[in-house]
Amino acid sequence: xxxLRNRWNDYAATGAEIVGISTDSVKSHLHFRQHHGLPLNLxxxxxxxxxxxxxxxxxxxxxxxxxxxxxxxxxxxRHRDVRPIGLIRPKDxxxxxxxxAAQK
Length: 104
Description:
By secondary structure, this protein is an alpha+beta fold. It has one domain: Glutaredoxin. Helix content is 37%, strand content 20%. The chain has five helices and four strands. The chain has a two-stranded parallel sheet. A two-stranded antiparallel ribbon has the order 3-4. β3 (66-71) and β4 form a beta hairpin. The longest helix is centred in the first third of the chain and has 11 residues, at 26-36.
């Protein structure tokens, strides 16, 4: 998330709506967002409904995979990057490129 924050101007230039989702609580998100100075909204998926719907499954029991989804204006998933182990995060340039490709 800090990388996204650091590249926020590049993400904002795409015109896309960028949100973060995790299974943490709303209260936890508020603290995390303030602590790291994040410019995007964080949504709580405490019931894992979104994670399960999008197939963001981790190899670690009880956890959700680090994932990036780019969804176009028609609601179609144009890019899906699910990392079941989550040791290596997706690269910002790849995400921005995927956003731009979904806008064509």
